[in-house]
Specification:
The structure is a single chain. Helices cover about 65% and strands about 0% of the residues. The protein is mainly α. The protein has one domain.
């Protein structure tokens, strides 16, 4: 494992990384054609963030649909949004607030 990977493991507990990895794997099983893709419209990711965050704030610790912690859904959707942003920056199309 490289230094960056070791640093991540020290900062983020293994079980949290495994939960996020598992949530990503579930997404791939649901959408095998997608691999890693952030091709949905932003509004779709905003909806995913909101839905999972509201579930968590409402006391849910296990998503009844997939058995994962709802914040893993927030993290995965945010990763897709970050990917979209970085692609825009790479293409010189970044937005400003």
């Amino acid at each position: 494992m490289d230094w960056a990977g070791e640093k991540v493991q020290r900062i983020i507990p293994d079980r949290v990384l495994r939960a996020i990895d598992d949530a990503l794997s579930v997404g791939l099983r649901k959408h095998p054609e997608a691999e890693w893709s952030s091709d949905l419209e932003r509004i779709e990711y905003y909806g995913k963030v909101g839905r999972h965050l509201l579930a968590y704030m409402g006391g849910e610790l296990i998503d009844p649909d997939d058995g994962h912690h709802p914040l893993t859904g927030v993290i995965v959707a945010c990763c897709h949004l970050i990917d979209k942003d970085l692609k825009e920056v790479d293409n010189g199309k970044h937005r400003t607030i």
